């Protein structure tokens, strides 16, 4: 409602826009649709949204919802964010890496725009403020001078509103120089909180017992159960259905509905539909149901107090995916879901004294993720001193240096740690992770850009294959139809091209709605996540537009996949691993002993050398090579430039003229 109040108060006069950022794309899209409905306008006109690879705005859009990452990218073209009169940062408590960087950016822009008015000073384009932020000409990205009229327009004051349902207001208030904190009473109904008497040794079993206690003893109302991931949700779903058959006929009226990010969209929507008459619905959800979506009908919440979280070890270059306790703010968000439509109850599956031991809020993502993408964007914005940038909470020095090192190895930075030209600037223009951006640039040289575009698009979405537990063998059989013995990258290309061929043969005379319905049916038959595939097709179309604008050579290697595999090795050389005598693999860059994930087509083949897409450490401390791999012999590494670290701070690279002759090109002490 606040954006609508601002619109009515005149903050969108003279073509200005009220911008609202969300940490998740699903929230940006759904809230924009809701506000458009409330305003009685068509989505994309007065009210619109813009997220990565999906834009629904027009010249008439005055209330614009977007992800925080997208607003950061807008700043590359318009460093003053001059079209915005007000920017609202919503769900700030989630503290995503983009939210934290956006705060530093907005603080700079607000200061620059205010100072030029209050002090009567012009914004000298190319001058840097104390934070090292450089304001660039939005037309050509070079340092130049605006005329006085342009400067006055760009110097109109910028209002910032930081919003959240559970926010440490003091931290943000102090960061923005003592900004006022306004507490607004919500429409929350009372929620009774219940704790266990003793700690639970098996929280899954405790959740099952609580589900049936609520179902058999409590009045009408749906149940929301928070679990840590897809595998756990599928296991609990199966156990509920098994135990339901043992209840009297009159007590079996319980509908089980899962919801998690990788679930196909048509199945996700079941969570929002009312239960059949006379039935109670139990929704098994990941933390996607904490803030991003609101499911109607919830009266009971079961919270084991755990969440699956990623963390990043810059020293090993490895992510960990582990189950950890929630924070207090997450626990409050979860319990609040029971009080949206009326009084509710929340059952926390841990003792009350354990709640007091929880951290107040979740550790900011910027302290537990790879910073390469963020640093590349900051460099593109002209921030030279990354270590001195005014973060709300600074990431570790080690993480920053490791990310700078990675960007240097990818060729994005010069020896002076400046953005390289043209490679670094080209990488910054692409809305992709740095290694994916570099892969596209190299693919143009290897004459396989068409194949790499497909690969990058497919790697940029949730899991393409959908494997339900009750149809495991059917799903595996369907997957084999696309599998390539040369690796998972080529398997993904096979899926994409099979879908494209299917559509071309059957949708010549179909409209868009009917063709999408036909594609969904094909996806269901082949156990492919239709939403992920549709998203990959959208990403492919938009990235293709980017690379064509950049003048990259769009060509296909045809059936010569050797050329494509060489390009993969040259692009992802930091992700190379060699088989050891015991059948495990050792990652070159980190020296970690790793294993191929069972879902890979190469799991049973054990090639001598592999290129992996992602390295994750799971709860059982076994390190997996997650995602697509390519099977190559050692000779393929002849095409690698920086190949492997040798000695402290040094790296070896293959020269341009003699691929087999190694040269030490520099040190990173």
UniProtKB/TrEMBL annotation:
One of its GO terms (molecular function) is ATP binding. Residues 208-382 form the Helicase C-terminal domain. The keyword Nucleus does not apply. One of its GO terms (biological process) is mRNA processing. The keyword ATP-binding applies. Keywords: ATP-binding, Helicase, Hydrolase, mRNA processing, mRNA splicing, Nucleotide-binding, Spliceosome. It is an enzyme of class 3 (hydrolase). Residues 1-185 form the Helicase ATP-binding domain. It holds the Pfam family WHD_HA2. It catalyses: ATP + H2O = ADP + phosphate + H(+). Its EC number is 3.6.4.13. Coiled coil: none annotated. GO terms for cellular component: nucleolus; spliceosomal complex. This is RNA helicase. It comes from Trifolium pratense.
């Amino acid at each position: 409602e606040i954006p609508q109040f601002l619109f009515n108060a005149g903050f969108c006069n003279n073509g200005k826009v009220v911008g609202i950022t969300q940490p998740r794309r699903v929230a940006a899209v759904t809230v924009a649709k809701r506000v458009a409905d409330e305003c009685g306008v068509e989505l994309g006109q007065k009210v619109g949204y813009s997220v990565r690879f999906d834009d629904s705005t027009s010249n008439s859009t005055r209330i614009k919802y977007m992800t925080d990452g997208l607003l950061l990218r807008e700043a590359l073209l318009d460093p003053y964010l001059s079209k915005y009169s007000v920017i609202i940062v919503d769900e700030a408590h989630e503290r995503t890496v983009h939210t934290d960087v956006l705060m530093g950016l907005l603080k700079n822009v607000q200061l620059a725009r205010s100072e030029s008015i209050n002090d009567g000073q012009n914004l000298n384009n190319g001058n840097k403020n104390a934070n090292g932020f450089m304001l660039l000409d939005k037309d050509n990205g070079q340092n130049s001078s605006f005329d006085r009229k342009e400067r006055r327009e760009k110097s109109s004051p910028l209002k910032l509103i930081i919003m959240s349902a559970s926010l440490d207001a003091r931290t943000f208030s102090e960061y923005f120089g003592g900004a006022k904190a306004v507490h607004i009473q919500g429409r929350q109904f009372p929620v009774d909180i219940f704790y266990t008497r003793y700690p639970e040794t098996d929280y899954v079993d405790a959740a099952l017992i609580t589900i049936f206690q609520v179902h058999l003893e409590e009045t009408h109302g749906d149940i929301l159960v928070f679990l840590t991931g897809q595998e756990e949700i599928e296991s609990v779903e199966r156990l509920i259905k098994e135990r339901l058959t043992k209840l009297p006929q009159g007590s079996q009226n319980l509908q089980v509905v899962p919801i998690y990010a990788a679930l196909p969209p048509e199945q996700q929507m079941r969570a929002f539909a009312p239960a059949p008459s006379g039935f109670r619905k139990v929704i098994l959800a990941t933390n996607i149901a904490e803030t991003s979506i609101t499911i109607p009908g919830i009266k009971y919440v079961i919270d084991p107090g755990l969440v699956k979280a990623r963390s990043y070890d810059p020293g090993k270059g490895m992510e960990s995916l582990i189950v950890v306790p929630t924070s207090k703010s997450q626990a409050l968000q979860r319990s609040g879901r029971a009080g949206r439509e009326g009084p509710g109850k929340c059952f926390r599956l841990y003792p009350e004294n354990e709640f007091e031991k929880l951290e107040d809020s979740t550790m900011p993502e910027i302290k537990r993720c790879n910073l390469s993408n963020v640093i590349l964007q900051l460099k593109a914005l002209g921030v030279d001193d990354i270590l001195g940038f005014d973060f709300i909470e600074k990431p570790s020095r080690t993480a920053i240096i490791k990310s700078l090192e990675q960007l240097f190895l990818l060729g994005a930075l010069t020896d002076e740690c400046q953005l390289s030209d043209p490679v670094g600037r080209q990488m910054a223009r692409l809305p992709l992770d740095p290694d994916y951006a570099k892969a596209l640039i190299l693919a143009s040289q290897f004459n396989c850009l068409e194949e790499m575009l497909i690969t990058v698009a497919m790697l940029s979405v949730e899991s393409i294959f959908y494997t339900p537990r009750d149809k495991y063998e059917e799903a595996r059989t369907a997957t084999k139809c696309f599998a390539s013995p040369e690796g998972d990258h080529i398997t993904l290309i096979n899926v994409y091209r099979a879908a494209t061929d299917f559509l071309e043969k059957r949708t010549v005379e179909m409209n868009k709605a009917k063709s999408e319905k036909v594609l969904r049916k094909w996806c269901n038959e082949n156990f492919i996540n239709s939403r992920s595939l549709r998203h990959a097709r959208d990403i492919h179309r938009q990235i293709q537009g980017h690379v064509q604008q950049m003048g990259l050579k769009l060509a296909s290697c045809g059936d010569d996949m050797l050329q494509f595999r060489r390009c993969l090795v040259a692009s992802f050389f930091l992700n190379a691993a060699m088989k050891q005598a015991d059948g495990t693999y050792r990652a070159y860059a980190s020296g970690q002993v790793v294993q191929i994930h069972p879902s890979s087509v190469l799991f049973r083949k054990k090639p001598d050398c592999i290129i992996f897409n992602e390295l994750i450490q799971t709860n059982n401390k076994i390190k997996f090579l997650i995602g697509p791999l390519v099977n190559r012999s050692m000779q393929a590494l002849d095409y690698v430039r920086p190949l492997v670290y040798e000695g402290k701070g040094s790296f070896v690279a293959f020269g341009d003229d003699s691929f087999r002759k190694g040269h030490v090109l520099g040190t990173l002490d």
